[in-house]
Design a protein that fits this description.
There is one protein chain. The chain is mainly α and about 70 residues long. It has one domain. About 90% of the residues lie in helices and about 0% in strands. The radius of gyration is 18 Å and the shape is elongated.
Length: about 70
């Protein structure tokens, strides 16, 4: 379920990046949409950090449970 949401989000982000690349090519302005692109990348990195931390906590709890038995 989470992987399906991630896949859809990445497809959407990719479409935005492709649109920005097209607009940059059309306008000749390599900086067009750079702020939007940066915000998207920063948001994705924050989400990845949160997901990684949550997974690490889950893994640690699972290891702790196994060693307690």
């Amino acid at each position: 379920m989470a992987s399906e949401r991630l896949r859809k989000r990445l497809v959407s982000v990719n479409a935005i990046f492709e649109m920005l690349a097209l607009r940059r090519a059309q306008s000749g302005d390599p900086q067009l949409g750079a702020g939007m692109e940066k915000r998207i990348l920063e948001a994705e990195l924050v989400d990845l950090e949160k997901a990684t931390a949550a997974q690490e906590m889950e893994d640690a709890a699972e290891r702790s449970t196994r060693t307690d038995l």
